[in-house]
Design a protein that fits this description.
Bound molecules: fe (ii) ion
Helix content: 40-55%
Order of helices and strands: HHHEHHHEH
Structural class: mainly alpha
Number of domains: 1
Number of strands: 2
CATH architecture: Up-down Bundle
Radius of gyration: 19 Å
Shape: globular
Strand content: under 5%
Oligomer: single chain
Number of helices: 7
Length: 239
Protein backbone atom coordinates (compact mmCIF):
# COMPACT_ATOMS: atom_id res chain seq x y z
CA UNK A 1 0.00 0.00 0.00
CA UNK A 2 1.36 3.40 -0.96
CA UNK A 3 0.61 6.21 1.48
CA UNK A 4 2.78 8.93 -0.01
CA UNK A 5 1.24 12.34 -0.60
CA UNK A 6 1.93 14.17 -3.84
CA UNK A 7 3.06 17.75 -3.27
CA UNK A 8 3.78 19.98 -6.21
CA UNK A 9 7.19 21.68 -6.04
CA UNK A 10 6.84 25.39 -5.54
CA UNK A 11 3.26 25.08 -4.40
CA UNK A 12 3.90 27.65 -1.67
CA UNK A 13 6.09 29.93 -3.74
CA UNK A 14 3.42 32.39 -4.83
CA UNK A 15 2.87 35.24 -2.40
CA UNK A 16 -0.73 35.94 -1.40
CA UNK A 17 -2.15 38.35 -3.92
CA UNK A 18 0.61 37.61 -6.41
CA UNK A 19 -0.08 37.15 -10.07
CA UNK A 20 -0.16 33.35 -9.84
CA UNK A 21 -2.76 33.44 -7.13
CA UNK A 22 -5.53 34.52 -9.47
CA UNK A 23 -4.69 32.74 -12.71
CA UNK A 24 -8.19 33.15 -14.06
CA UNK A 25 -8.59 36.86 -13.45
CA UNK A 26 -8.48 37.73 -17.17
CA UNK A 27 -10.46 40.74 -18.22
CA UNK A 28 -13.82 39.74 -19.56
CA UNK A 29 -14.21 36.68 -17.38
CA UNK A 30 -17.38 37.04 -15.43
CA UNK A 31 -16.69 36.98 -11.76
CA UNK A 32 -18.26 34.32 -9.58
CA UNK A 33 -19.06 37.03 -7.08
CA UNK A 34 -20.62 39.42 -9.59
CA UNK A 35 -22.90 36.70 -10.89
CA UNK A 36 -23.76 35.50 -7.43
CA UNK A 37 -24.13 38.77 -5.60
CA UNK A 38 -27.85 39.05 -6.22
CA UNK A 39 -28.40 35.65 -4.67
CA UNK A 40 -26.63 36.49 -1.46
CA UNK A 41 -28.17 38.69 1.13
CA UNK A 42 -25.06 37.98 3.18
CA UNK A 43 -22.86 39.59 0.53
CA UNK A 44 -25.16 42.59 0.41
CA UNK A 45 -24.96 42.86 4.16
CA UNK A 46 -21.17 42.79 4.01
CA UNK A 47 -21.07 45.68 1.57
CA UNK A 48 -23.68 47.55 3.55
CA UNK A 49 -21.57 47.04 6.63
CA UNK A 50 -18.52 48.48 4.92
CA UNK A 51 -20.46 51.55 3.89
CA UNK A 52 -21.69 51.96 7.43
CA UNK A 53 -18.06 51.96 8.58
CA UNK A 54 -16.85 54.26 5.81
CA UNK A 55 -15.26 56.60 8.32
CA UNK A 56 -13.14 53.80 9.76
CA UNK A 57 -10.04 53.42 7.51
CA UNK A 58 -9.16 50.18 9.29
CA UNK A 59 -12.54 48.46 8.85
CA UNK A 60 -11.98 44.81 7.93
CA UNK A 61 -12.72 44.28 4.22
CA UNK A 62 -14.85 41.26 3.41
CA UNK A 63 -14.14 40.13 -0.12
CA UNK A 64 -11.40 39.83 -2.74
CA UNK A 65 -11.73 39.61 -6.53
CA UNK A 66 -11.94 36.03 -7.77
CA UNK A 67 -11.18 34.61 -4.34
CA UNK A 68 -14.16 32.28 -4.42
CA UNK A 69 -13.35 30.96 -7.89
CA UNK A 70 -9.86 30.12 -6.67
CA UNK A 71 -11.17 28.39 -3.56
CA UNK A 72 -13.69 26.21 -5.41
CA UNK A 73 -11.09 25.21 -7.95
CA UNK A 74 -8.77 24.32 -5.08
CA UNK A 75 -11.46 22.21 -3.42
CA UNK A 76 -12.17 20.40 -6.69
CA UNK A 77 -8.47 19.61 -7.14
CA UNK A 78 -8.21 18.42 -3.52
CA UNK A 79 -11.12 15.99 -3.95
CA UNK A 80 -9.55 14.63 -7.11
CA UNK A 81 -6.30 14.16 -5.19
CA UNK A 82 -8.10 12.42 -2.30
CA UNK A 83 -9.71 9.94 -4.70
CA UNK A 84 -6.41 9.29 -6.44
CA UNK A 85 -4.64 8.78 -3.13
CA UNK A 86 -7.19 6.31 -1.75
CA UNK A 87 -7.44 4.37 -5.01
CA UNK A 88 -3.68 4.07 -5.03
CA UNK A 89 -3.52 3.12 -1.34
CA UNK A 90 -6.21 0.45 -1.70
CA UNK A 91 -4.84 -0.98 -4.91
CA UNK A 92 -6.83 -4.05 -5.98
CA UNK A 93 -9.16 -3.57 -2.98
CA UNK A 94 -10.38 -0.15 -4.17
CA UNK A 95 -14.11 0.08 -4.80
CA UNK A 96 -15.31 1.14 -8.26
CA UNK A 97 -16.77 4.59 -8.53
CA UNK A 98 -20.45 4.51 -7.51
CA UNK A 99 -23.15 5.93 -9.74
CA UNK A 100 -24.54 9.15 -8.26
CA UNK A 101 -27.67 11.25 -8.72
CA UNK A 102 -29.02 14.66 -7.67
CA UNK A 103 -25.63 16.37 -7.95
CA UNK A 104 -26.57 18.91 -10.60
CA UNK A 105 -27.01 22.26 -8.84
CA UNK A 106 -29.49 24.69 -10.32
CA UNK A 107 -28.29 27.95 -8.82
CA UNK A 108 -25.38 29.44 -6.97
CA UNK A 109 -26.97 29.41 -3.55
CA UNK A 110 -27.90 25.74 -3.86
CA UNK A 111 -24.34 25.01 -4.97
CA UNK A 112 -22.60 26.69 -2.05
CA UNK A 113 -25.07 25.30 0.49
CA UNK A 114 -24.68 21.74 -0.71
CA UNK A 115 -20.92 22.18 -0.86
CA UNK A 116 -21.04 23.15 2.80
CA UNK A 117 -23.04 20.05 3.69
CA UNK A 118 -20.71 17.72 1.79
CA UNK A 119 -17.59 19.18 3.39
CA UNK A 120 -18.98 19.11 6.90
CA UNK A 121 -20.16 15.56 6.34
CA UNK A 122 -16.62 14.62 5.35
CA UNK A 123 -15.14 16.19 8.48
CA UNK A 124 -17.50 14.30 10.78
CA UNK A 125 -17.16 11.07 8.83
CA UNK A 126 -13.37 10.97 9.00
CA UNK A 127 -13.40 11.72 12.72
CA UNK A 128 -16.03 9.03 13.26
CA UNK A 129 -13.94 6.44 11.43
CA UNK A 130 -10.63 7.47 12.96
CA UNK A 131 -11.31 5.71 16.25
CA UNK A 132 -11.46 2.36 14.46
CA UNK A 133 -8.40 2.62 12.21
CA UNK A 134 -5.91 -0.01 13.28
CA UNK A 135 -2.84 0.94 11.29
CA UNK A 136 -1.12 4.16 12.42
CA UNK A 137 0.10 5.24 8.95
CA UNK A 138 -3.49 4.92 7.69
CA UNK A 139 -4.70 6.94 10.66
CA UNK A 140 -2.18 9.68 9.90
CA UNK A 141 -3.16 9.67 6.23
CA UNK A 142 -6.85 9.93 7.14
CA UNK A 143 -6.07 12.77 9.54
CA UNK A 144 -4.26 14.60 6.76
CA UNK A 145 -7.32 14.33 4.53
CA UNK A 146 -9.64 15.28 7.39
CA UNK A 147 -7.67 18.46 8.06
CA UNK A 148 -8.14 19.52 4.45
CA UNK A 149 -11.85 18.72 4.63
CA UNK A 150 -12.01 20.92 7.72
CA UNK A 151 -10.41 23.79 5.80
CA UNK A 152 -12.96 23.32 3.02
CA UNK A 153 -15.80 23.19 5.53
CA UNK A 154 -14.66 26.29 7.42
CA UNK A 155 -14.41 28.32 4.24
CA UNK A 156 -17.83 27.16 3.02
CA UNK A 157 -19.41 27.84 6.40
CA UNK A 158 -18.22 31.44 6.21
CA UNK A 159 -19.34 31.74 2.59
CA UNK A 160 -22.78 30.64 3.76
CA UNK A 161 -22.76 33.19 6.60
CA UNK A 162 -22.33 30.52 9.30
CA UNK A 163 -19.79 30.27 12.08
CA UNK A 164 -16.66 28.71 10.65
CA UNK A 165 -16.92 25.85 13.15
CA UNK A 166 -20.55 24.91 12.53
CA UNK A 167 -20.81 21.21 11.78
CA UNK A 168 -23.33 19.26 9.74
CA UNK A 169 -25.46 18.81 12.86
CA UNK A 170 -25.77 22.59 13.26
CA UNK A 171 -23.53 22.69 16.31
CA UNK A 172 -20.49 24.97 16.72
CA UNK A 173 -18.32 22.97 19.08
CA UNK A 174 -14.79 23.75 20.18
CA UNK A 175 -14.08 20.03 19.73
CA UNK A 176 -15.38 18.44 16.54
CA UNK A 177 -18.24 15.96 16.90
CA UNK A 178 -17.76 12.60 15.20
CA UNK A 179 -20.55 11.33 12.98
CA UNK A 180 -21.68 7.76 13.34
CA UNK A 181 -21.47 5.52 10.32
CA UNK A 182 -25.26 5.56 10.07
CA UNK A 183 -25.40 9.36 10.15
CA UNK A 184 -22.95 9.50 7.26
CA UNK A 185 -24.88 6.88 5.29
CA UNK A 186 -28.13 8.78 5.85
CA UNK A 187 -26.52 12.01 4.61
CA UNK A 188 -25.04 10.56 1.42
CA UNK A 189 -27.66 7.94 0.48
CA UNK A 190 -29.88 10.38 -1.46
CA UNK A 191 -27.01 10.79 -3.90
CA UNK A 192 -26.05 7.14 -4.41
CA UNK A 193 -27.79 5.17 -7.14
CA UNK A 194 -25.50 2.17 -7.20
CA UNK A 195 -22.23 1.07 -5.61
CA UNK A 196 -21.55 -0.78 -8.86
CA UNK A 197 -20.52 -3.99 -7.18
CA UNK A 198 -18.29 -2.30 -4.61
CA UNK A 199 -18.39 -3.11 -0.89
CA UNK A 200 -21.34 -1.80 1.16
CA UNK A 201 -21.07 1.56 2.94
CA UNK A 202 -20.08 0.06 6.25
CA UNK A 203 -17.17 -0.88 8.48
CA UNK A 204 -16.72 -2.63 11.79
CA UNK A 205 -16.08 -0.95 15.13
CA UNK A 206 -13.55 -3.69 15.88
CA UNK A 207 -10.16 -2.61 14.55
CA UNK A 208 -8.32 -5.03 12.26
CA UNK A 209 -6.25 -4.96 9.09
CA UNK A 210 -9.26 -6.12 7.12
CA UNK A 211 -11.44 -3.42 8.66
CA UNK A 212 -8.93 -0.76 7.67
CA UNK A 213 -9.64 -1.69 4.06
CA UNK A 214 -13.36 -1.28 4.71
CA UNK A 215 -12.81 2.13 6.31
CA UNK A 216 -10.66 3.37 3.46
CA UNK A 217 -13.28 2.15 0.98
CA UNK A 218 -15.96 3.93 3.01
CA UNK A 219 -13.87 7.10 2.75
CA UNK A 220 -13.31 6.51 -0.95
CA UNK A 221 -17.06 6.46 -1.58
CA UNK A 222 -17.35 9.87 0.11
CA UNK A 223 -14.44 11.23 -1.88
CA UNK A 224 -15.91 9.94 -5.13
CA UNK A 225 -19.13 11.71 -4.22
CA UNK A 226 -17.40 15.01 -3.46
CA UNK A 227 -15.21 14.80 -6.54
CA UNK A 228 -18.16 14.11 -8.83
CA UNK A 229 -20.16 16.93 -7.26
CA UNK A 230 -17.39 19.46 -7.87
CA UNK A 231 -16.49 18.11 -11.30
CA UNK A 232 -20.08 18.71 -12.36
CA UNK A 233 -20.64 22.06 -10.71
CA UNK A 234 -17.37 23.98 -10.41
CA UNK A 235 -17.04 24.54 -14.18
CA UNK A 236 -20.68 25.57 -14.29
CA UNK A 237 -20.28 28.28 -11.67
CA UNK A 238 -16.77 29.50 -12.42
CA UNK A 239 -16.44 29.32 -16.20
FE1 LIG B 1 -11.94 15.06 0.12
FE1 LIG C 1 -13.52 18.42 0.72
Amino acid sequence: MNLSFEVSPGEWSSPPGGSERHPRSDAGRRSFLRRGAAAFSAASAAFAGREAHATNPNFLPSLYPNENVLEFQTIQADEQAHVKFLVNALGADARPMPTFQNLQMNNLQQFVQNSMVFENTGVGAYLGAAAYIDNVPYLVAAAGIMDIEARHAGYLNVLNNRKMTQNVLGQSPSFEVALTMQQVVDLVSPYVVSLNGGPPLTFSTIPSAENDIAILNFALALEYLEMTFYNINVPKFTG
